[in-house]
Fold this sequence. Notes:
single chain, 262 residues, alpha/beta, Rossmann fold, 8-stranded mixed sheet, 9 helices
Amino acid sequence: xxxxxxxxxxxxxxxxxxxxxxxxxxxxxxxxxxxxxxxxxxxxxxxxxxxxxxxxxxxxxxxxxxxxxxxxxxxxxxxxxxxxxxxxxxxxxxxxxxxxxxxxxxxxxxxxxxxxxxxxxxxxxxxxxxxxxxxxxxxxxxxxxxxxxxxxxxxxxxxxxxxxxxxxxxxxxxxxxxxxxxxxxxxxxxxxxxxxxxxxxxxxxxxxxxxxxxxxxxxxxxxxxxxxxxxxxxxxxxxxxxxxxxxxxxxxxxxxxxxxxx
Length: 262
């Protein structure tokens, strides 16, 4: 565990693996922290340099005042990469993390070798949807809405296991409300539909076959715009790295190895 001063906030970062290994950088979804990758990371080659971080307003990173923009969140990711001296990165973005990855690839192509878009899209939801959610959260709080959030994240089979579900409910409920809302504002404004067709790096699009938050149809449409390889992961919802870590890891490892052998 280490921290990095990004100017207006301090970010928490986890770095594993040798400095000269293939670099993979992970960005989390809304309402999760870097522990969302805990089951996936041990399945990756130990020779890789694996970087995880808590985005602003989440986990153990600071929560500067919002609202946030996807451009700002991508600048944070770039600042972490520059601060750690990372290059030729495979950036793996989950949900809002995938929007961060798309923006980063557009504005800092020098940093990235390839991109993995997981359960994400060029545009997620509508401004009205996000404004309604912001209003509901301000009224009721995250704990009151956590069960509805988990229903969109996980398959019915996973939801029927209370012991597995409880830590994720706690993670959502303990996310700073202002950080969550600030990222909702970023999602309300973000629309990269007309820009990502310009991307020229290799892209892999993954989605849980039972994702209710960013559906396979939505992810497939984004994959078509940016000419990404597309795969559905069976037995998983919005967080394949949690419900199907082995298959998710297999696809990422295969993709990264193909890029480094090209």
